[in-house]
């Protein structure tokens, strides 16, 4: 589904430096519920857990996620070969913890990483936050793209349009659309993070949490 570009709904977008971003997250958590953190829907959000040997039931490379193979990181899939691109995925020094994901261009096109299926009710408002760093990322764009049953690219959040920047928080709020056909009360969505530039995109500390209505 992610092989082709699709119309993307605009989303509210803001960027803050690391210090300010942490304060914003704490403020959100503090108001979400009395003393409880809003649940992060993203597995292995800080890329600290390696994928290890292949496990039964892994979604990568089959069915809906055809084209996405397993990555070195648990709960994340990867492809470096869309749009005639050739992107490697490497372990980088983490913004927090020990590790982050690094997408490294060998030939410009499109590469990216993807979450496992996340099941949410249509109409749910979700707050995205992630930290990104770029090294020589020029000649294209990088973005966070929301895909799955509601449609190809039902929302998208642009990453900074700069070739080089240090760890920067990117946030946005999206609302899950209702597909024309659905069974049950939840739909599957996926979060993709794409690089379409030369150079490197570093990724760490990804959160997707239900936002207040
Ligand atoms: Ca990390």
Task: Provide a quick synopsis of the model.
The protein contains 1 helix and 13 strands; from the N terminus they run βαββββββββββββ. With 213 residues, the chain is mostly beta strands.
Content of β-strand: 35-45%
What's the CATH first level?
Mainly Beta
How many distinct helices? 1
Order of H and E elements: EHEEEEEEEEEEEE
Low-confidence runs: 1-35
* CATH evolutionary superfamily: Galactose-binding domain-like
First-residue to last-residue Cα separation: 29 Å
Radius of gyration from the alpha-carbon trace, in angstroms: 16 Å
By CATH, the topology is Jelly Rolls
Mean pLDDT: 86
Work out the count of structural domains: 1
Helix-strand category: mainly beta
Bound molecules: calcium ion
Most strands sheet: 7 strands, antiparallel
The CATH architecture classification is Sandwich
Number of strands: 13
What share of residues is helical?
A: under 10%
Shape: globular
What does this structure look like?
The chain is globular and about 45 Å long. It contains 1 helix and 13 strands. The protein is mostly beta strands. The protein has one domain: Jelly Rolls (Sandwich). Helices cover 7% and strands 44% of the residues. Residues 46-48, 94, 96-97, 99-100, 204 line the site of calcium ion. Calcium ion (CA) binds next to strand 5.
């Amino acid at each position: 589904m992610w092989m082709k570009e699709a119309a993307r709904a605009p989303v509210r977008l803001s960027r803050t430096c690391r210090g300010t971003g942490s304060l914003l997250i704490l403020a959100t958590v503090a108001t979400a519920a009395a003393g409880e953190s809003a649940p992060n829907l993203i597995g292995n959000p800080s890329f600290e857990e390696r994928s290890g040997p292949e496990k039964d039931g892994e979604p990568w490379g089959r069915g809906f996620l055809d084209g996405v193979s397993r990555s070195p990181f648990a709960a994340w899939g990867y492809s470096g070969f869309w749009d005639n691109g050739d992107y490697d995925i490497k372990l980088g020094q983490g913004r927090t913890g020990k590790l982050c994901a690094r997408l490294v261009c060998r030939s410009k096109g499109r590469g990216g990483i993807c979450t496992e299926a996340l099941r949410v009710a249509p109409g749910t408002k979700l707050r995205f936050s992630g930290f990104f760093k770029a090294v020589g990322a020029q000649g294209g764009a990088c973005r966070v793209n929301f895909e799955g049953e509601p449609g190809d690219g039902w929302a998208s959040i642009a990453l900074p349009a700069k070739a080089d920047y240090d760890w920067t928080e990117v946030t946005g709020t999206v609302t899950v659309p209702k597909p024309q056909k659905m069974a049950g009360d939840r739909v599957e969505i996926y979060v993709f993070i794409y690089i379409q530039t030369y150079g490197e995109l570093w990724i760490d500390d990804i959160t997707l949490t239900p936002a207040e209505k």
